[in-house]
Amino acid sequence: MLVIQTSGGQALEIQLLQMGAALFPRRWCNNTPSLYAGLNQLRKMDTEVFWNVTFSPLDTSRYNICLFSTSSLDSTEAISEGVQLEAISVRIKNSADILGEWGCGEHDIYKIFARRPSLRKTDPEILQSKLEILSKLGITSSDLVKMVHCRPRFLNCRINLFLNERLEYFEAFFGSRQVLAKAIVRNPSLLTYDFHNKIKPVIAIYESLGVSSRDLIAVLMSRPTVIPRTNLNDEKMDYIRKTGVSKESRMYKHVVSLFAISRMATIREKVVNFEKYGFSEDEIFGLIGRSPLLLTLSIDKVQRNMTFILGTIKQPANLVLANPFLLYFNLEIVLKPRYLLACKIEDMGVEPGIKGPAMLRALRMSDKRFVAAFITCHSGDVANELMTFYNNAKFVRRLAESSKKNSNTGFPF
Fold it and tell me: b/e map of 87-122 (b: 16 or more CB within 10 Å)?
């Protein structure tokens, strides 16, 4: 039991844990250095015992300190000496307690600590203040788990910088606090980005290009990296103009945002890759204007799909200009199995077949609709044979796919 009596006469009694009590001498009086050494050790220990008294080693005259052991003999001596104490028991909450009281369940707390273990030892008061800010925004415990999973360092960042000004600006921009809360859950860094030098200038850039607030909100929701990665120069602006997309088009916001967040080297590489198949520059940018998500496809995927269309299906490259969806489909799961099934149906001489324009229509179908239109529509034995063939074709994977090394060079854009 540690007893501290201040110069004002107020007495504090702090119950020490068994581990903490072992750090102090059994009988101690007027040994300030030893006391501070023990207190500092308790500070560093991951226990729940702490106190709200500030100890200053430079001014100990304000304290009349005596340490008694917890034995009954010493307690009797203290009473006989006329020491009257008013005891209080102080138990400081840790970060798990703070999260629990805020509304997080045990499973949520486990997920948060698993994603960011250092939060176990974070300052409870600082964590409490951050959670209060999130509560005002309407963020729930399940939302917090998503945010920490997305940005593990979020709760270690300072989210109170320009907070009032930031929230007023965002509420006016998003239109309501509910939409703002959804945007923050989608991208927690909205509370940590440099407000004056990053957020406001980037939003001003898109507005100056004719992107409406409603369209920009949709872009921010779908692509959280827009604010930190936006970089527009004269060459990118020239690319945007070459697409021929007007500001009134629904594709305009995607064209502008994808060119803005893409690296110049990446854009050039993808344009050159299309040129290998005989497309002119005007055709390439026209294609991107009609289907901007082509900028998100890797060079490898475009090469494999184009090679299959030209080499296996024996279709001209211009087919892709009219049907860009052919580049989005998975080669092993959609394109190749359905083409092989079309060949199987032709060899068996059954109807309906998958020829000519029906091939493009069949490729765009959902899997359930495709099976119903070209497999289960036949009699029992034929349907079983076609279904077995189709399933086997879908399970054929790319050669050495399991040993492929994934090389990540940043964001996929």
Answer: eeeeeebbbbbbbbebebeeebbebbbebbeebeeb
d(CA 342, CA 345): 5
Alpha helices in 291-366 (DSSP H): 299-307, 318-322, 336-348, 357-364
If residue 284 lies in a helix (H) or strand (E), which one and from where to where? Answer: helix 281-290
Mean pLDDT by 10 residues, the chain (413 residues): 44 40 40 46 45 42 40 45 40 83 92 93 92 92 92 90 92 92 93 93 94 93 91 94 93 95 95 94 94 94 94 91 93 92 89 85 92 88 91 74 51 38
Burial class from Cβ neighbours inside 10 Å (0-12, 13-18, 19+) for residue 365 reads: middle
Do the bridges between strand 63-67 and strand 28-29 make them parallel or antiparallel, or are there none, so unpaired?
Answer: antiparallel
**Residues sharing a CB contact under 8 Å with residue 251, sequence separation 6 or more, in sequence order:** 245, 289, 290, 292
